[in-house]
Specification:
Layout: E1 5-6, E2 17-24, E3 32-33, E4 37-44, E5 47-51, E6 54-58, E7 63-66, E8 72-76, E9 89-96, H1 102-107, H2 112-120, E10 125-127, H3 133-141, H4 147-163, E11 168-169, H5 173-176, H6 185-197, H7 204-210, H8 215-226, H9 230-248, H10 253-259, H11 265-276, H12 280-288
Parallel strand pairs: 1-3
Antiparallel strand pairs: 2-9, 4-7, 4-9, 5-6, 5-8, 7-10, 10-11
Length: 292
């Protein structure tokens, strides 16, 4: 069973931004998500970036913005993993609290572009190496800054990114819709559990018990919080994972159906087409041809 790790970052309301340099032999962190936003600058490195149900190549100079609770991971090219390889992946990671300046960003017109940027980051955003020198200059200074100076420069960075016309939104709208905006510990606990267990049969009794609720109360609560029924949410999670497996092109459609938790290939095909408007076969063909 494939799991998505719920990473807990050392960020809080009193320390809302964490910026650091990284220097690895290759990226090793698994498929994961976290409530904080993350900005990944790849100064040196190349490989594939998995975001939601999409896969995109990354290389020197790319900048990727991951939204709150968006599953993702960086996969270095196989040449980095050879025993005698001298290759390294280097760059800067900036992680910031999901409620960072929440009131100002959501209410003041001066922050409208930044608000749009953060909303779009829910699907992941790739800023290519052609980005402005000003963005790189601010970014490279952030790890050495702290306090108010860091916050001011970080806001400048967000504004520059928000003004950048050349960017690519990564995950599909269908995948993004399966992740609700989280706002309290109970729903976060439930969603975290589902993100780890969605490929197996989770009964309503089991998930309701986790939430310390009876089944009928849980169903009402879950629909209020996510806008979806529990079964709809599970189905969308499974289809999101199926999209990722199809892009990898390593398993048959029948194998993918089983791994994603569907009881029959017929149910898988019907659910997949309902959510993506393609059959799994056509989706696989189009994603490999980069025509979606």
């Amino acid at each position: 069973m494939k799991t998505i790790m719920n990473e807990k970052l050392p960020i809080s309301n009193t320390t809302p931004i964490k910026a650091r340099h990284y220097d690895y032999q290759h990226f090793t962190y698994p498929w994961h998500f976290h409530s904080q936003y993350e900005l990944m600058y790849v100064e040196n490195g190349f490989g594939q970036c998995f975001v939601g149900d999409s896969i995109h190549k990354f290389s020197d100079g790319d900048l990727i913005l991951f939204g709150s609770n968006l599953p993702h991971y960086m996969n270095s090219d196989d040449s980095y993993k050879k025993k005698n390889s001298n290759l390294r992946v280097k760059g800067i990671i900036v992680q910031f609290e999901k409620d960072f300046m929440n009131y100002s960003i959501n209410n003041y017109p001066q922050f409208l572009q930044i608000k749009t940027l953060l909303e779009n980051s829910g699907r992941g955003m790739l800023f290519p190496k052609e980005q402005s020198d000003k963005i790189k200059s601010i970014l490279k200074k952030l790890p050495e800054m702290n306090g108010l100076q860091q916050i001011i420069n970080f806001l400048n960075l967000l504004q520059e990114l928000a003004s950048c016309k050349k960017n690519t939104v990564l995950a599909s709208p269908q995948f993004y819709k399966s992740f609700p905006k989280l706002g309290n510990s109970r729903i976060e606990k439930i969603i975290s559990f589902i993100n780890i267990n969605y490929t197996r049969n989770i009964s309503l009794t089991e998930i309701a018990s986790l939430a310390a609720m009876n089944v009928s109360s849980f169903c009402r609560y879950f629909k209020e919080q996510t806008g979806k029924t529990f079964l709809e949410y599970i189905a969308e999670m499974r289809i999101g994972y199926a999209c990722k497996l199809l892009t990898l092109n390593e398993k048959s459609i029948n194998q993918i159906s089983i791994e994603c938790g569907f009881e029959s290939i017929t149910h898988f095909n019907k659910t997949f087409k309902k959510q993506t408007h393609f059959t799994p076969t056509i989706y696989k063909q189009k994603i490999l041809e980069n025509t979606i």
